[in-house]
Specification:
With 207 residues, the protein is an alpha+beta fold. Helices cover 16% and strands 33% of the residues. It has a single domain, classed as Sandwich (Jelly Rolls). It has four helices and twelve strands. Bound molecules: ligand L3FJYLFB and fe (ii) ion. Keywords: Amino-acid biosynthesis, Cell membrane, Cytoplasm, Dioxygenase, Iron, Membrane, Metal-binding, Methionine biosynthesis, Nickel, Nucleus, Oxidoreductase.
Length: 207
């Protein structure tokens, strides 16, 4: 199942960041433009996430061996305000940020090549990957709730490095390779039929 993802350039207002902050007129950003920044997306059926063969296949293809689930809501997440404040600080990670929205809504903001903010609206069924080294931030919308699966290649690395982190190798690597961050090859299913695999994680080899 492949469906679009809504994304747009945002204004510079400091008002409640859980609002959409669209420009007037709206300036949408396409999936192709997001891909050029190294941002990828799948639309999955979150109702069956525990048994979904499509999710299993993605995890196998991309090497997403670790997963946990976070519920971001005032009454369930310890230190809710503090954590949301931290998530909204502009930062980067040394690993890809891979999130599968199982319920609710969330905004991921990413910087484009000209350092402008793009807001990506995610909702139930969106699996999104942000490349290691991209400056980004996260916020709930005004529904104040999301439940998300967090995926990693190998063990989880939670550390976020707030901007400025321009001297980090991963930042330099991202800037050098962001537009060619995926490689393509053929995979073989158990029944011997073949399918195209898009491998996203640039720390994995294309061979
Ligand atoms: C939906 S998981 C919380 C957000 C997060 O982990 C992160 O790093 C945001 O950039
Ligand atoms: Fe992050």
């Amino acid at each position: 199942m492949t469906m679009g993802l809504e994304a747009w350039y945002i204004d510079s207002s400091d008002e409640d960041h859980r609002m959409p902050h669209k420009l007037s007129p709206n300036q949408p950003v396409s999936l192709e433009e997001l891909q050029k920044l190294g941002v990828f997306h799948w639309k999955l059926n979150a109702d069956i996430y525990e048994t979904d063969p499509e999710l299993e296949q993605i995890r196998k293809d991309q090497g997403y061996s670790y997963m946990d689930i976070i519920t971001i809501r005032k009454d369930t997440l310890p230190n809710y305000e503090e954590k949301l404040k931290m998530f909204f600080e502009e930062h980067l990670h040394l690993d890809d940020e891979i999130r599968y929205i199982l319920d609710g809504h969330a905004y991921f903001d990413v910087r484009d090549k000209e350092d402008r903010w793009i807001r990506i609206a995610t909702t139930k069924g969106d699996l999104i990957t942000l490349p290691a080294g991209i400056y980004h931030r996260f916020t709930l919308d005004t529904n104040n709730y999301t439940k998300a699966m967090r995926l990693f290649v190998g063990g989880p690395v939670w550390k976020a490095y707030n901007r400025p982190a321009d001297d980090f190798d991963i930042r330099k690597k991202y800037l050098a390779t962001a537009s060619s961050s995926a490689c393509f090859f053929w995979g073989l299913r158990d029944d011997s039929s073949s399918y195209m695999v898009v491998r996203l994680n640039r720390t994995l080899s294309c061979r």
